[in-house]
Amino acid sequence: LSVFYLVLVLILTLYPGQILCIGPDLVTKTCDATMYKELCKATLQSSSQADLKGLAQVILKTLLSTATQVQDGIAKSTTDPRLKDCSGQYEVAIDKIKDSQAALDAHRYHDINMWVTAAMTNAGSCNDGFKEI
User: Fold this and answer.
1) What is the CB-side half-sphere exposure of residue 58 using CA atoms within 13 A?
2) Residues 7-20: pLDDT tens digits?
3) Phi, psi for residue 126 in degrees, rounded to 5
4) How far apart are CA 43 and CA 31, in angstroms?
5) Which CATH number is 3-127 given?
6) Which residues span the membrane (predicted)?
């Protein structure tokens, strides 16, 4: 999972009052606040008419899809204990992303921040296990 998604979700959930436009201007203004502007714009381009909540939904859906693909690939790959640990880390991350989707619907933005951060931490723990090689 990319740090890009974490930053984008945090911007959308922690500062909703600071982004007052809608449509393409919202995508531009949101993406200009990230380190990966082009990736952000490519991800959100199809949602150019969405409001802030709609953009957050797109990001969480993209996060969930990416995390699920990674977890499925890891789970099928090998019996390496590090990969088994990664699979478990991604399962937890997927659960946190699903929790974040429910929290968005309930306007519990602090929970989204906490759970997306936890999901990113879990994915990062998987990556860290391979840096020791």
Assistant:
1) 19
2) 455 555 545 554 44
3) -60, -50
4) 10
5) 1.20.140.40
6) none
